[in-house]
Amino acid sequence: MRSPASVAVVIPAYNEEQTVPSVIHAARTLTDEVVVVSDGSTDGTARAALSAGARVVDLPENAGKGPALYAGLHATDAQYVILLDADLVGLTRAHLDTLLEPVVRGDLDMAVGVFEGGGFATDFGNRMTPHLSGQRACRRDWLLQVPGLASERWPEPAITHALKQSGVRWDYVELSNLRQVMKEEKRGFWRGVKYRTKMYLDILGYRRRRKRGKAVPDQP
Ligand SMILES: Nc1nc2c(ncn2[C@@H]2O[C@H](COP(=O)(O)OP(=O)(O)OP(=O)(O)O)[C@@H](O)[C@H]2O)c(=O)[nH]1
Ligand SMILES: [Mg+2]
Fold first, then answer.
1. Can you give the residue ranges of the Glycosyltransferase 2-like domain (predicted)?
2. Ligand 1 pocket, 87 CB below 6 A?
């Protein structure tokens, strides 16, 4: 049985036409409320997401994962949200339950998914930087008040900071036999390396932006 629309799955997707359909199909085994946000994708991401049964927020300009998430959270009124990356391979309903159940039970305010047994490269990457995981479940209203969410291109450092500051209960949960397509595979080796370098530089700059007051609370 499907759960009511108190749970939405929000998927930021930038040029992910290859993998987003299967992520949506798995998400729709849990809820009809599956929101994909594409901002300026130049491939068929929005069309593929629509065909796979998602609600699509298609923004004209690329602004980053954080602004996309923020727009997606406003496109639903569900109480709980599961955040997923669009490049997952092997996603099943069991992974969604693993993320959501501790939150709905009230044991955690946020569950953060880490890959286990999905392949050396992605397991290793995820184990090195589990705090950057895109797989999470929490209450939608908590996430919406995270300072910087709407303005940070890569929102995970802002979320991590908010988790520490607010003292909410969070923990990692294992997502077995799940992996993602790495940037070097998606974009080609050198473009992938370039994109990855830019991502890490942006993430490393978060603390400085926050201290300068540039990662500020967001207005709806
Ligand atoms: N809407 C939107 N989504 C984005 C943007 N940048 C990244 N994403 C999505 O955010 C998710 C994570 O991005 P990736 O580029 O795969 O980053 P990652 O998984 O942390 O990086 P690697 O492990 O290094 O490949 C994917 O679903 C992307 O499509 C963006 O600018 N806009
Ligand atoms: Mg990825």
1. 9-130
2. yes
For strand 110-116 and strand 170-176, is the pairing parallel, antiparallel, or unpaired? parallel
What confidence tens digit (pLDDT) does each residue in 2-42 have?
A: 454 499 999 999 999 999 999 999 999 999 999 999 999 99
Residue 165 CA to ligand 1 centre (angstroms): 25
Examine residue 217 and state whether it is found in any structural domain, yes or no: no
* CATH number, residue 116: 3.90.550.10
What does DSSP assign to residue 117?
S
Domain count, the chain: 1
The pLDDT of residue 123 is above 90? no
Which residues lie below 8 Å from residue 122, measured CB to CB, with a gap of 6+?
115, 179, 180, 182
- Asked whether residue 206 is assigned to any structural domain, the reply reads yes
Over residues 40-78, the pLDDT tens digits come to 999 999 999 999 999 999 999 999 999 999 999 999 999
Query: What is the C-alpha separation between 18 and 42, in angstroms, rounded?
Result: 13
Q: What global pTM score does this model have? A: 0.93
Please name which of 41, 50, 44, 38 lies closest in space to residue 11, comparing C-alpha atoms: 38
Q: What is the best residue among 85, 89, 129 to mutate for testing ligand 1's pocket, by most ligand atoms within 8 Å of CB? A: 85
Band the pLDDT of 218: cuts 50, 70, 90: low
> In whole angstroms, what is the distance from residue 177 CA to residue 187 CA?
23
Domain ranges, residue 48: 4-211
In a domain, 218, yes or no: no
